[in-house]
Amino acid sequence: MADEKKTExxxxxxxxxxxxxxxxxxxxxxxxPSPFHDDRPPGNPLKxxxxxxxxxxxxxxxxxxxxxxxNKDDIHKPEQIYKGNPINPDEDxxxxxxxxLPGSPYQEAAESRMRWRYAxxxxxxxxxxxxxxxxxxxxxxxxxxxxxxxSNSNSTLPTKIAFEWWSKDKDEHKDKDKxxxxxxxxxxxxxLRKNPAATLKDILxxxxxxxxxxxxxxxxxxxxxxxxxxxxxxxxxxxEDSDNKNAAExxxxxxxxxxxTLLEDLLKEVKDNKDNELGKINTKPITYYSAAATADxxxxxxxxxxxxxxxxxxxxxxxxxxxxxxxxxxxxxxxQAMANELATLHRIQKTDHIVIxxxxxTLYGRSISKAFKSAWALKNNLQDxxxxxxxxxYMRGLDGKLPDKSEKADKSEKEADSAEKKSDTKEPDKSExxxxxxxxxxxxxxxxxxxLSEYIRDLDQKIIDEGDSKGITVxxxxxxxxxxxxxxxxxxxxxxxxxxxxxxxLDAAYYHPTKWHQTHNMxxxxxxxxxxxxELQGTIPPFRDTYQTAxxxxxxxxxxxxxxxxxxxxxxxxxxEKKQFINTPSPLLFExxxxxxxxxxxxxxxxxxxxxxxxxxxxxVEGECKNTVQPPxxxxxxxxxNNNVVLQILSLTVGIGFLCFVSSWFRRRVKFAxxxxxxxxxxxxxxxxxxxxxxxxxxI
Length: 700
What we know:
Helix content: 25-40%
Distance between the termini: 50 Å
Oligomer: single chain
Number of domains: 4
Strand content: 15-25%
Radius of gyration: 30 Å
Number of strands: 20
Structural class: alpha/beta
């Protein structure tokens, strides 16, 4: 009998705990997102005959435009723009758009260039524009003298300017008399410092040859024979009577400045050149749309004389010489929304201690930390917010990585680092974890971060010792580089596991499975979601970050002639007879969940409307779109109906049922738990608490 009982306990029932654990793990693995497989075979570059066209450099539409043209040595004059792209003087409406992009060679700047180009091109595609050549990009040299260059300009032009053509057939828009064309210029922001308006005007002027040169070329048989017919067409455009409504129309716009530093330079330049027509080319205005510069208006206006900025905004001041629209929320507005959230819903008291970490080597980093301090002081009526807010700073690029490192150099550097570690770890008493720690030398900045984390931990303990049992209650990580934020969160989370963290600028990387332990339950203040409302987003998928959404919106505002008045409603001017007014996008708040960011309700959020309302279009934003471009607020409770969550619950139920079927031991445990809960109700309360914690921490 003993042998029979012993035999009965073998097999599956003898490994019930292991089986149960495996069943639970399998239930989650079944519905964990898996990476997509890339089956495209590698291709070899072809050495073909030179491609004779305006856009003659191989490039994908999502590719970094600076990288595509960086190593090209052929000299292309500005006339290259019109090679193979006929400009019909009777039917074309051309909009020349200069898009300013970060020009540094570092990885984060290259990623931004790819993302921002993707957003701008997606906006054009959403407005029914098509690429003239989807497989190539062009460039021209900007160092050719131009007699239309402002005489008082000290601009330093970029060596190469990448460009591409997009077109929209007359059948695709209301104005049936003209074909719409867009010439995109990708401009390095590093070349615009000190004199951005003058430099941009110079670059835009070079897209059409000056009058004197055109007259000489078109009056010379030899020159005409050697000149592309499209440049001759441009000469005919210039000779057309300005009152001729059938003549080609040229308009000029700038998507930028897209950094707070460059916007500050623009203010200084306008201050020194109020009487100079920096914002016009041949009486045509150059319209600026700043989509990504978020520095607080008060901080930016400090560079100007006090008598010039009283009761003015950045947009109003720049109207002295430039048509300028700011299409995004400022740091102050985002921090005010965050302060309201912390004080109301999270019950953070005005005496609670808050830590802010921000980069000190950018205007954005310096601005955002001051913006939060001002917002928190205003919300809580604090005379001296420094008593409860401790600010710390760091430099960008904490990982110490530099660009343009060849594989051979990387390999030798790794070998040197490995040899250095071996030589430094010969002592037998050093543990493996100690060997892995970074040394306080070289380019890597992580050792500063480690000591900073320990310093903040000591501050937390000091606050507790002084009688405040909460210690540090909130930690804000405010910077422009997402990877720096991840490193800071990785350093601080082990010390402050149950503290509230917040940051700015929603990014899809925040809820990536590999980053969830650093970012879970983090609050994010953001100017935009990763998408506009579905009716205006069109066929374009959600973006990687909020700055893409901002540029996506600004580009469509530009091509639809959307303006923003000084009172900050947006004006959509489709015709001279009718104008529409829509609200300036207000900042949004999110909490990072396990699978997605959860949007938090704000006072100015509109309610959920019917999805894909066909009446909500760019031509009727004021009415059917509820006067906003932001997605309508959706109650987070709707997440309970998510198919993945339902399937996970079903898989857990099936797993438990399977164990009850095959294991008598498990059946006895279930029966015992049932009897306990039946006779001792507090077991049910405990089970409910476990289920709620499990739901919040694992499934949501």
